[in-house]
Amino acid sequence: MSGTDEPSDIDELRRQLEIYQLIFESIHSGAMVTDADGYITHFNRYYGQFLGCDPATQIGRHCTESVENSRMHIVAETGQAEINHSQLIQGQKMVVQRIPIKKDGKVIAVFGQVMFKDVRDVGKLARELSLLESKLKLYEEELINLRSTRYTFDSIVGESEEIQGLKREALKACANTFPVLITGESGTGKELFAQAIHNASPRRLHPFVRINCAAIPRDLLESELFGYEKGAFTGAKVEGKPGKFELADAGTIFLDEIGDMPIEMQPKLLRAIEDKEFERVGGTRVVRSDFRVIAATNQHLESLLAAGRFRKDLFYRLNVIALHIPPLRERPADIVALTRRFLDQTAREAG
What we know:
Helices cover 42% and strands 22% of the residues. The chain is of the alpha/beta class and 351 residues long. Strands 2-1-5-4-3 form a five-stranded antiparallel β-sheet. A hairpin with a 2-residue loop joins strand 4 and strand 5 (106-116).
């Protein structure tokens, strides 16, 4: 090392030591460091204020002489950290941590810090956390009510074994994110089951996006599903528009009347479902969305497969969890329960 370099190296070392000292002194709770034998090497001013002593006078003393019930020397011997332990100091139970500092596997120092000056602070923190959890639950319930979904499993009325069995199967579907295919005649409650599955799943706080594949013109279906970029076609919004799959991120997309999906759109739909990614119409950027798919149809998809109007690969991708809802004429045991529900609903609406 040259003579001209030495002063700058010393100055840099002093600067770093000053920063470390400032950091240690800025720890708002009490903190101290001992050597491997338990003798104090550092003692910050906040600890001195709390104990009513001059930090400078504690340097060089054994930790047991400065702080009652100290275990810093024991941690130095065992090399085992003690996190969030209780320590009685001046008649006050405090929560502390003692962390061994090692070099080449050997304890060279121990860092100790007061986490809470009074264990009652921990109780206060727990009560505040409990209050926040209660508020969060309330906000979640309000958010669910604001969502477009309004049906839950309680909305599914029926005492027949067919309906009870379907509810059990649908409840199993809530625990995973596999695609669900719901079949049944018009009016049997396919969307009711779809919303119930969504509302009972971990995705209930996120969007439930419904799209009727039979009600959208063929030339607009792709832009409805995947969105479009600005200037993609005549009449497109200047800023572009996100599609239903993009809006369903973290939630559920319900593809109603999936049997009416045009055959030319089915490969793009299959890719979006398999890869969870797609491109907007007129765009080149890949959009990724984490959605769960629930599809429904009143058509016999096996017949559409045989006629070449529905792709086999798309059918098998959707038909992972299959729910078939029988019509009411096949479950007469539900007629009375449904009648009572409709009467109650009509009475409330009529005041």
